[in-house]
Amino acid sequence: MSTLRPFTVDDLFKFNNVNLDPLTETYGLSFYMQYLAHWPEFFQVAESPSGEIMGYIMGKAEGHGENWHGHVTALTVSPDYRRLGLAARLMNFLEEVSEKKRAYFVDLFVRVSNKVAINMYEQLGYIVYRTVLEYYSGDPDEDAYDMRKALSIDVKRKSVVPLTHPVRPEDVD
Questions:
Q1: 51 three-class SS
Q2: Residue 164 DSSP one-character state
Q3: Torsion angle defined by CA atoms of residues 37, 10, 28 and 43, in that order, rounded to the nearest 10 degrees
Q4: CA 150 – CA 125 distance, rounded (Å)
Q5: How many whole angstroms from its chain centre is CA 29?
Q6: CA 99 to chain CA mean position, Å
Q7: Who is most buried in 58, 115, 131, 166, counting CB within 10 A?
């Protein structure tokens, strides 16, 4: 059993156990504070009955016109709480917020080597929109998939027509 609730500043002192996963991108405190200040409605935590952080999602809204979208910056669930559907619940939450913001789609970047996450996102309705070459600065040999899911405003699903060629990080808008 878990509760989804808004992420708070105090959670920055309690979420290290979740960030220890090698596939989780960890940022400086100022980065988390920026998201909390600018997009608090996109920042949620899954909490156990004992108050332990089980996972969290951090995102934002960005773009213009038909490129207006919700973006998943970070989604992670502690290894102790995986396979319980928490990641899907957190993704569903961010998609609902994006719908309320009248976004055309939700996107995220995932390591090409992270097959478990890619499979989960595909089960949630995401497609590989494009490959971003050498996306991860700490690992220049690792590419990313830019995965997308169209939302209800994108009736013609134009936002999820895959690109046929890879792009470089500087070409990502």
A1: coil
A2: S
A3: -50
A4: 9
A5: 18
A6: 15
A7: 58
Strand 105-111 vs strand 69-77: parallel, antiparallel, or unpaired?
A: parallel
Nearest to 46 by CA among 16, 97, 3, 13: 3
Question: Are the C-beta atoms of 62 and 108 separated by less than 8 Å?
Answer: no
Q: CA 48 to CA 38: how far, in whole Å? A: 26
pLDDT 10s digits, 69-120: 999 999 999 988 988 999 999 999 999 999 999 999 999 999 999 999 999 9
What whole-number distance in Å separates Cα of residue 112 and Cα of residue 81? 23
Beta bridge partner(s), residue 107: 71, 148
Distance of CA 162 to the CA centre of its chain: 19
How many C-beta atoms surround the C-beta of residue 104 within 10 A? 24
Beta-carbon contacts of 55 under 8 Å, excluding residues fewer than 6 positions away, are 18, 45, 46, 75, 76, 77, 78, 81, 86, 87, 90
pTM recorded for the entire structure: 0.92
